Structures are given as C-alpha cells and as structure tokens.
Structures
1.
Amino acid sequence: MAEPIIAFDGVHKVFEGSNRVHAVDDVSLTIDAGEIFGVIGFSGAGKSTLVRLVNGLEPVTSGRLVVDGHEVSALSEKQLRAVRPDIGMIFQQFNLFGSKTIAENVAYPLRLAKWDAGRRAARVAELLAFVGLTDKADAHPSQLSGGQKQRVGIARALATSPKILLADECTSALDPQTTREVLDVLRRVNAELGVTIVLITHEMDVVRYLCDRVLIMENGRAVELGDVYQVFARPRAQVTQRFVAATMRDKPSADALGRLAATHPGRLVTVPIVDDAHTDAERSSVFARHGLEARVIYGGIIEISERPYGSLTYAVTGADTAVDAALADLAGSGGYTEHDRATLPNSEGHR
Ligand code: ADP
C-alpha cells in the first residue's frame, strides 16, 4: 500500500479583510506518495489556495496538514524553509527570470541552497538533459516557446530533487499540442523520478490524460474525489457533471435532439458505453436481437485512464413492445435514457 505523503485533516483557510473569504473550507483528504493527483474546479473555487497551503506559501487557518512527515500547519516560517526544498512548484506564467540564461534560471534554487559551482553545473546539465533543453542552456527565456519555458520551469522545480511537485495551471497558457508535450514531461517526472504530483487545472482533458485521482473543488469545499475514470463515468456532484459535459459533448442538447427528431423517425435513446467487454458486446447488439433498426444519430467516445467512455444516441424503429423489451435489457446492464419527443423543441415529427 502506498503511504500518504500529504494529509489534510479538517483544514480551513480564511482570508480576513474587508471581504472575508473562506477559500478552503473543511478539507480532509490524503494524497499518496507516487500518485498524480488532479485538483479541478472553476476559477475562485480555492484550488490555488489549497495547494499553496502544502508548501506553506499560505499558512493554514485551522486544522492539521501533514506533508512528508512534517506538520506544516504547526511550523514557523523558518522551519518551513527547511521543508520547502522537498516541494517544487511550477506556474502558469512560468515565472522565469528574463535577464538570466536558461542554465542560470535552473541553477537558481541550487544557489539558494548554497551548492558550489561545480556541483551546480553538473546538476543543471543533468536537469536540462532530462527536459530535452541541453542546447538552450545559454539562451534567454524570451528566445523560447511557451512549452520550452514550462520545461525550464519543471527543470528548476526539480533542481533540489523534491519529493512533491505542485503544478498550478501549468498548461493553461499553452496550445493543446504543447500542453501534451509538457504533460508527457510530467508523466516522466512521476514515473522515472518517483515524484508525487499535485496538479491544478480547470481542464478535464488534462486530468484524464495525466491523473490517477481527481478532486473537484467548489466554494472552498472538496465536493468529489475519486479515480479519474470513476469520477468521469459516474459524476455525482452537479459541478462535476458540468465539467464532464463540457469535455465530452457526447450527449445532444435539447435543441440538437429537437432537430434530430425532426429528421429521424423512431424512439430516441441514449446508451452509455460500459467499460466491460462482455456487457458492452451484449449492449451493442441489443436492438438487433429484438429485431429493431437502430440508427446512431449522436455520440462520442473518448479514452479515460486507458478505458473507453462516452455514449451513443440512437433513433430506434420497430414495434413498441420490442423496443420496450430491448430497453428492459439495457436497464439491467448499465442503463439508458429515453428522450420524450413530446418535450423536445420543434417536436411535431415522426414517431
Ligand atoms: P482558484 O485557484 O480555484 O481559482 P483561489 O484559491 O485562487 O481559487 O481563490 C479562492 C478564493 O480565495 C477566491 O475568492 C479568491 O479571491 C480568494 N483569495 C485567494 N487568495 C487571496 C488572498 N491572498 N487574499 C484574499 N483573498 C484571496
């Protein structure tokens, strides 16, 4: 069993001031050593604050937070300085020094940690090789692309061999292709160096590509936490359902259904993809088995944690009793949703 490397126990963070903000509200959870843990939520949900508590950039207001055996919620600023080299951080805006070379940027935390010049140079060379930027050592940040800058950020964050890497919206300024490159580097950081990664994002696509588990935050609270596949496939909280729907777009809107209903006769049924080879084969042949004709009119399937996920919407024609029998089969093996034509926009259409 993996050991927790981060443990929140009833943690609160309140920003006092003219506008009192309860940014983190009674969060209790653990993050295991070696996992890639995603934190997702809309802007203002408290994601950054939660993560900044981990390295003590923000002090905990109440509750207990233990990071790698240190109770950071009880440490002084001086004691925190001793813990921080074990926790790297990367940012959306890269936060590189524009006047320093790439090598100098990466060497910066080693200078702070008082490494001598020889060891520093060797370590910088090793880090630049790891992120594939050896040939950029003497360049300045302005000469690099966004993806390259973030790889420099990763190299710098790893300089002191941290056990934990905090990534705050680290791909939000990047295009999808570059995002993928940076996520691949993070995957290697985790797999080859064994670094635990806590990654904040507002993009479910980033979570499904990289993370083992995901936490959904809303109004400072941890509203849902689970394996990425489980959370995607059976989102419970409304906010999670909105994130999943925004990523997937596999289910037709009422307007789209109304348009489809106007041109496709039959009963309209959405069938989720079930990640079980046996059940799935049975489900995909269910309409044919009952002598029905089923036409796919909408849908989407993607891969999450290397498993298929999504849904297909069919227009099913044939005897009503046969459709009912097919739907009863589906109900027993993973469910379905039937859309009532009478409730759809512009629904005169066929039946
Ligand atoms: P997210 O990362 O999910 O966008 P944040 O953690 O940045 O959310 O912010 C959560 C809430 O805390 C917001 O209402 C934000 O305005 C507030 N907040 C964040 N940092 C501070 C601060 N230093 N002082 C006062 N309020 C803050």
2.
Amino acid sequence: MIQFNVSDTFNRFLPADENPSNSRRQVMEACYSFVKPLKPSKPELIHVSDEMATAIGLNLKDTKSEAFLDIFSGTKVLDNTNPYAMCYGGHQFGQWAGQLGDGRAINLFEVLHNKQRWALQLKGAGPTPYSRSADGFAVLRSSIREHLCSEAMHHLNVPSTRSLSLMLSGDQVLRDMLYNGNAAYEKGAIVCRVAPTFIRFGNFQIFASRQDVIRLKQLADYTIQHFFPAINVEGKARYIAFFEAVLELTFKMVLNWQRVGFVHGVMNTDNMSILGLTIDYGPYGWLEGYDKNWTPNTTDRQQRRYRFGNQPGIALWNLYQLANALYPLVEDAKPFENALEKYQDEFLKAYMKMMSDKLGLKNANEKLILELENVLMSTETDMTIFFRLLSKLKMNSNKEEAFEMLEPAFYDFKQMTVQVKVGWKDWLDKYLLRLNEDNWLDEDRSRAMCALNPKYVLRNYMAQMAIDEANEGRYALIDEIYQLLKYPYDEQPENEKWFARRPEWARHKVGCSMLSCSS
Ligand code: AMP
Ligand code: MG
C-alpha cells in the first residue's frame, strides 16, 4: 500500500457546509462542501509526472500500483481523508458572476513532504454542489493540455500549479467543442492537480459579496498563517501586508508569462491563484507569431479582453477586485490604493528590465524595446525562435549578417517587403551598437540570454498532435513532450525538430490557434 504523510488543514480549520448532500445549490457561510469523487467506469493511467510523484513522497513503483490508480482516478477515497469542493465566486469577463466554486474539482487531501505542503485535487471526477448546469467531467484533450502545460511552466520557472497524473475515466463526455451546435461524445479524463493551496481571489470575493465578514476573516487568517508565514504584523496591517504579498506574486507571474509568450486566455478572478500560480489551463496558448493582440480563446474573440498585451493590465484589474474583497478587514482604502498605484509604476519598469535581460543588455532601454515590438509586429515573427537565435549573435557582426541569421524566425521571409526589411535592419543596427557599448563577451551574454529565452515551449500544435494520437489510443508523444519540456532552456540537439515554426497545417486548425472554454 502506498503511504502518504497526510496533513489536512483546509477542511479541518475552516468552516464546512453543513449540508452533506451532493445537490447543486448556493452554499452559505462555508468555505467548502464535502463531496466524494464519482467512480469512473474503467480508469486507465496514461501518464505520471515522475518529478511530482517524488515531490509528494512516492517512488516509481508506487505510481504503478493499483492503489495509485484507485486514488487518483477517484475510484477509492484514501482512509481517514475527507474530500471536498471549494466555494468561490468571481468576475467572469469583467462581470460579477456570483457563486462559482469547484464545479468539477475535488480536493482529496494535503500531504506534507520535505517540509512542503501539497494539496492534491482531481479535476473531472464528477459533479459537486458547485457544478451549476454542467456535468463535473473533463475531456481528454483539455486534460492533456493541462497536464503537459502545468509541468512545462514549472520547468520554465513560471509559477504554476502542477500535475501529478493523467487518467482516462473510461466514460464518454458530451461536448460542443466550438459552441456551434455540434455536440459529440469525447473520452473523459481525470487530472490530479497539485499546489500548496488552490485558494483563488474568488474565495475571498464570495464572502465579501455576501457581507460575511466572519468567514472572510477566517479564510484570510488561515491563508496568511499557512502560506504567508513571513507576515508577522498584527491587526489591520496584517491584511494589508497580505494584499501586498499577493500583489507581488501576481506581478511576478504575469511578468513571466510575458517573458515566455504565454497567453492564459481566461483571466477571470476565479482563475487567479492567491499564491500567484498559473492556474486553470483552459483555452491558453503560446505566442508563435509575436502579436500583442493575440488570444487563442474564441469565446473572447470580439473583445479580446484577455489578449497577450492586456495581461498585465487585467492582473491589475483583478487585484482591484481582491482589494475590494479584503477591504472589510481593513476599512481604509488608502493602503490598497497605494499598493495598486505602485504596481502600475513598477510593472512598466520591471517589464523593461525583463525585456532588456531577454535581449542581453546591461541596462534597460525603453526606446529600443518599443522599437523591437514594432518590428516584431511588422511581419509574422516567431517569438521563441527570434529570441533564442538572437542569443547566438556575435557583437562584431553587421546588420546584414544578423538579419540573415534570424531568417528561421520569420514566417514569410520570401514575401517580406523592402520596408519591413529596412525596419529590421535599422533595429539590428541599433541593437548591435548597444551590444558593443556594453562590451559583454559574446559567450557570457549568450549564456545569460539562454537562461531566460527558452528553446522549447509547448507550441499549440505540439499539444494538439499529442491529443490527436491519444484519441486513437497512442500515448508515446505525451511522454516525449513531457521529457522535452523538462529542460526547455537546454539545447537538446536530438530534439531540434521541435525548434521550428508552427507548420502551416496548424495555422487555422481548431485546438492549435482556436480554442473555446469547452473542456
Ligand atoms: P473555468 O472557465 O474553467 O474557470 O470555469 C468556470 C466555472 O465553471 C468554475 O466554477 C468551474 O468549476 C465550472 N465548470 C467548468 N466546467 C465545468 C464542468 N464540466 N462541470 C462542472 N463545472 C464546470
Ligand atoms: Mg476556473
């Protein structure tokens, strides 16, 4: 039997819903409802993150055991544990949506291993009191996307929830993938997500919206005590310090998204982790052609609220909502306003510093960066390939050589207009001048740049290839991609085929450039 060092806190120290039935309803004065996963018909393990397994104290043999299959498919509940679904609310696409909650996530238990707390949560293991009109299940395609991307983000040094395992449930799930009246059955799947805690901005918002200051305070005190131990002030200052800490973590998360070209796709406040972790992998995507206006989410195609270039601003908007939710604990808006104002000033500075670091420059140069964004947008340019190739540039090259070296990053090199070429060469001229001023050894600059500019990311079409194969019962590509993305900053010559522009077949393919919230 596999052993866990179970150490539950959320469902021990916070108020539970007194109604034990698994019926859909508004849940008042409680942080969660007890609920058991539904037994899947024919669970089958597809993939395990060996690293995550080790992190929670399991070995390879454990992950192949029947007990592992039983627990992480939701077939059996581990003895002396009490699974539950969390109650939270949220702003969806800018509108207050009321109670949402874990509609298809069931928290199993918390584990303490090597002094690190991990909460284990099944996604897609059946309905909960928060399922509203939906079924509580998840399909294979979105589960593969979540499993691979959570682990890939972690290895890119982008704060993220993790994923332990990916299972088939053996049940069929009905989905209208593009919300266009073409519902079809798909394979059901269950992912076990892992994070120190899954608390979101929305967990605080729901109590503030109901003027339930008692529960709001309990949740804030619990969160600070367990996840922000460095906060040692008391009274109202404690909640301000908490807010400032969340702001800082959120800020860092979004800065990292901009660094690697990740577009979350649904930055609703219920999808914002209180620990600043990337959470809820739905219609996310990776920038291939650098475009600040791009969003993979077809549901957001009109407004483009959650487009790449808007992510820092939306994070700030979400932090305003969190400030509103915490306000009753402080009853003074000023400290929140001060923190939020600081975000605006500092984010721009931090962004310029991050871009300068990506460029291997010793000092931030706003003008050069803004000009770069313009040339990047002037012709379809692959973000990942561009920055990685730039790291190989020699200080004594000229602009012609530099431009030629960058050719693999351009989607349509042959059709490029003279004007675009001139724009690029002008920019490269200025950039080379800066490199010469800095006079940093090519080798050292290249090393520093390669630590920030990944060679491999989970390109949208790669996940889709893994999905297409998995739908036919072949799972090898899932592990191949998982292994590749464990070392995204390494050269990995044997994997050069993944350092390539998006193939043309994927340009308009559903799942590659177009994704909806249906999952
Ligand atoms: P999302 O857009 O995935 O963040 O989901 C928004 C809300 O809808 C959350 O409360 C989810 O738990 C819930 N939800 C999404 N899909 C399902 C589903 N298939 N069954 C039940 N609840 C769901
Ligand atoms: Mg969500």
3.
Amino acid sequence: MNQPDVFAWDAPSLAEACRGRLRIGAAVNTWDLDEASPACAAIRRQFDILTLENESKPVNVQPEEGRFVFDKLDRFTDFGQKNGITLRGHTLVWHSQVPGWLFEGEDGAPASKEQLLSRMQAHIGTVVSRYRGKIATWDVLNEVLRDEGGLRESKWYKIAGRDYIPAAFQAAHEADPDARLLINDYNLESSEAKADTMAALVEELLRAGTPVGGIGLQMHLSLYTDLELLKKNVRKLAALRAFAPDLRLEVTELDVSCYRFDDTAEDLLWTDALETAFREKYAALFRFYGELADEGTLDTVVFWGLSDAVSWLNGFPRRHKNYPLLIGRGWRVKPAFYDVLALAGNKEAQS
Ligand code: XIL
C-alpha cells in the first residue's frame, strides 16, 4: 500500500484536532500500556479515550463465582488517570465471552431467573462501584438484539425474559450514578429492523425511568456499507433525543473491513481503486460524525484496535489480511488519516 512514511506518534494528533467536538479513541490491551512500547506512544499521541478489547469482559473479570480478577482493569484505570485519558468499560452483560457458571443452577439444571439476576447485579455492582469516577462510560448491555429485529434469544433472555435489561441499568446506576450507561450493538446502521427495535426499546426504557445514557453503535463497517442507509438508521436513533435530550450516541468499535463479509480471499491487491474507496468511505463517515457532533448527538468515536496489524478483522469472520483502520502496519498513518484529520477537527489545532 502506498502510504506516507509517518509513524502514528509523529503524525499530527487526531484526538487533539477533534478536541471539543469529538473524543477519538481505540480499543487496546493492557500490554499496549507498557510505557516503552510503540503502542503506548501511538496511544498518547492519537487518542483521548480508550476501551479494553477483551480484558474487562465478564469471562475475564469473574471467571468463577465470587472470584474477581481486577489486575488488568486496575492497570487500565491507573494508566487513564496518569495520562488524562477518558475510559470506557466494555462490557457488563453479553452472551459471548461470559462465564458458563452464570447460567448454571444446582445439579446441572439451568439457573433460576432470581439466581441469574442476583448474579448479574452482584457482578455489575462489584465492578462498577470499584471503578466509580474512573470509568466514564459503561457498555452495560452488549448485542442484546437480533439482526432481524426483536431481542436476541440468549441465555439471559431464555432464563430472565426481558427483565434483565432494565435491571442491568439500575444496578450500574446504583453503583455509579455519574457514569454514562449505554446499550451497545452492531449492524444498527445496516439493519432497519434492528435500528427500529433499538429505538423502540430505548424509548420504552426511558419512559419507564430506566437510566439509559446512550446508544453505542459498534459500526463494524466495510467498504461496501451503504452510507445512505447508515445515515437513515442513525438519524432514527438520534431522533430519540427529542424527548430525552441528554441521550447520546457513541461510535464504539469503528473499523472498515476491505472485504465483503462472505469473501473467502486471504489477501487482496491494494489497487488505486481500493485506496480511493477506502479514503472516500472514511471521509464520508467523518463528515457525518462531524454533523452529529455539531448538533450534540455524538461525542465519541472509538476505533476497534490500534492498527491494521492487530485488528480482530484479520481473524474475523475468517483468517485474512485486512486493512480496516487509519493506522496501518508498521504504525504508519494512511492517506485516509490525513483526510479525516482535515475534516474532523477544529482548524486551529491542525496548524
Ligand atoms: C472481539 C475482540 O476484538 C476479539 O479479540 C475477541 O476474540 C472477540 O471479541 N463486538 C464486540 C467486541 O462488542 O467485544 C468484539 O471484540 C468485536 C465485536
């Protein structure tokens, strides 16, 4: 790929350019926080908000009932405090990367609804209160909807019905009344049915007084994502602010895969046409994010990974070499990085 030979830590700072308009972040792992590492240099220069990619998920935080493992989250929050970086907590309730014991009752039977809800409340209460005031935003619920609309029939749902949804928000709010509490999901931009379900669910929760602070749009996109549909669906969610003005949208896991979902190729030839498509996609996205930011709807955009070299999309949905981020392999920023820099921020910070 034809990239300017500038390292992420020497390039102008995207976070700085966007300050006051959008926070710009990335998903990281605690090994990236090692002061001497290139990852840490890239983080310090480019990002002002961070999410842990895996280490704060339930299976890692409470692998066995009552045995909490906090060393990674402690390291993360210490780093954030020391460096003045805002932190997101990902995630409290999910169907994946969740320990099996949560759903197990006596003698191999499934847990009862009461048991599951009380375990959920204990998990949320313990984790959120420990980091009260240190983690600004929690992805309280992750991926609870189906792509074709309706609620996902996860073990959570099968055992507890829809009641776990408001209960999770209540438990998080009691543990940290100042944290922003989100419901986070993917394909909200590409499935109208899913966006409709999300809008209806959040409206219902808000009307019942549930402390929902916002909607997380994962935005795992591709070069082939329909941006008109994306805008329409995002606008639908933004419209909830008409009766809940404090509600915010966050882009929580942005990346732009260079493959169609069903493409089985292991690599692709980086042509000028691909380069143009990649740049145009990112530019159009950040133009839209800027509009949303200016009207107060969106204040955070987090990339899912620090660079192409470590993106999960090299292994999902299959093993192939992907190029989804603005920082390429070898920590070099891409032409699209400069396009976004020019678009996203306030002008003074870029000079
Ligand atoms: C992914 C991580 O990036 C991978 O390293 C891990 O193997 C699986 O999970 N939606 C989410 C994230 O909410 O937690 C997922 O992260 C990506 C999709």
4.
Amino acid sequence: MVKKIGVLTSGGDSPGMNAAIRAITRSALYYGLEVYGINNGYRGLIEDDMFLMERSTVSDIMIKGGTILGSARLPEFKDVEVQKLGIANLKKREIEALVVIGGDGTYKGAMALTQLGVNCIGLPGTIDNDIASTDYTIGFDTALNTVIYCVDKLRDTSSSHHRCSVVEVMGNRCGDLAIYSGISCGAEIIITPEAGYDEPSVLEQLRYFEAVKKKRHAIVIISEKITDVETLAAKISKATNFSGRATVLGHIQRGGSPTAFDRVLATRMGDKAVELLLNGIGGHCVGMLNNEIISFPIEEALGLPKKSRRPLYALHERLV
Ligand code: F6P
C-alpha cells in the first residue's frame, strides 16, 4: 500500500485550493500516510522543492485564498525528459503517488506521470469552470460571487449616470463565469465564446432596451478574449443614447476567501483523492456530478464534450 504521497497546485490559482490541500493532508495523515507539499506546481517537482507536511502545516488555511504551496505554469512539463526529472526527485524520497490541483493542463501532467509509474489524481482547481467531468470546479463559486459583488456596484453608478457598463470577466474561452454572473446580476446582454459575438446586434439591442424598455442603464457582461472592451464601450457611446464605460475585472476574480460551497467541494474532493490513491488508483480526476463525488480516468475526462448552457441562455432571453 502507498505510504508517502505528494500534493501540488498548478496553473492559475483559485480560491479553495488551500481547503483541498488541507483535506488531502489531514485525510492522508488520518490513514497513516506521509504527505509532502511540493512548492510552485510542477516547477517544484523538477527543482526538488518539497517538504514534509504536518497536521499543523495546514492549520487555519481553509479560509485563505490563493495557495500556500504556490503555483506556476510550466509548458516545458510536456517534455517526457522533464517529467522524468520530477519522477527522480519523488523516488529520492520514496514518494509513490501525487495529488495535483489545477486545470486541464495540470491533468495532462498527471496523466503523463501516471504512465511513467507514479499514480496521480487530479482535482479541478480553476475559476473558469471549464472542466467537463465536474459540475463545478474549485474556485468557480467564489469567483462568481466576486463578479456579482463588483457588478452590483457598477449597476448603482450606471443607473445614476444613464450609462452602459461593459464588464469583462475571466473564463479562458469558457462562458460560465459570464452566463452565471449575467443571470445573477440581471445583465441586459451576455456575450460568451459559446453564444458568439455580433457587434451590430449588441448595439441594436441596447438601442431597443433604451427606447422601448425604457432602461435607465444597461449591463453587458462579456467573457475575456472576445473583443477589446474599451473600444466596445466607445462604440456604445457613439451608437446609442447610453454612455459606455468599460471595466476589466481581471485577477481580482482569482482572489479572496473561498465561499462555503468551495470549501465543502474542495474538502470532499481532497478526501476522495486520498481514498483513490489508497486503493491503488492513478490517472483519475475527481469531479462532482449531481452532488456526488466521483472520479473518471483523466483521458476520458479530457475527451468529454463541453457542458451545454443552452437552457441558461434561453432563460436569460425570457427574463431580460
Ligand atoms: O485559468 C484561470 C485564468 O484566470 C483564466 O480565466 C485567465 O484567462 C488566465 O487564468 C489568466 O492567466 P494568468 O494569471 O497567467 O495571466
């Protein structure tokens, strides 16, 4: 049976990663395992930057945003020679298995390491909610609440000044933060990669909201990487009676203390990862489907189709 495991966080950080680290550590210690924390994602693995964790190492971290282990993006980790460097560092300490927390890039690393003989389990840690093998990723709910908090404030000032606020949210080509926040804030227009972007139609809709629906303000939520929001706001000022203003929420969405939902999700998933490793399972990722914590082979998970949000778009259409 496995005796020593490692844990790392990789890719963009997300609120709740610490709650997952805590759960993995405490659960592993409960079953008599030793746990090593690996600093700065796969970089720490290849640079041999790891340390033995104790119960107290994870005290009080549940409520903290970010990740106490640090995170990094390491494109070189695709290279099998680089992966072997990491494996050699694990072998030095007789670490036989790993839990990695991150997005789909992180999952690919976990799959490669499992193929090289080190069982790895992936946990979905990203604010983007862009992983098909789970209803929710760790951090999405907190980021969503941060967006809502900001947009509610923008609504106040937009209403006072008869303005249209164009708010850019993150998502890395997944529209979930935009569609969920748009519905939560009663946004007039929601632009996502999935729904597509048609600028003339956006301007036309805004003119309609103003002239026919007598709206005092308008909120446009738009996913990042679609168009330049400053330019769009300027066009709105020109083509409608609203004065356009752009706000890019940026990395503020990645920080903050995790919500109760993210804490519970991360805790359940962390515990499940340890259970899988104890059962000799590797190359799996953990997800939550219909409130049940499950696991999938990573290969299968990465091949799943994107979750359809069509009913949410239809709902927004009916209510706007
Ligand atoms: O994947 C999380 C994420 O925050 C995306 O939403 C965003 O596109 C990207 O990371 C930003 O990356 P970085 O922090 O490296 O600028």
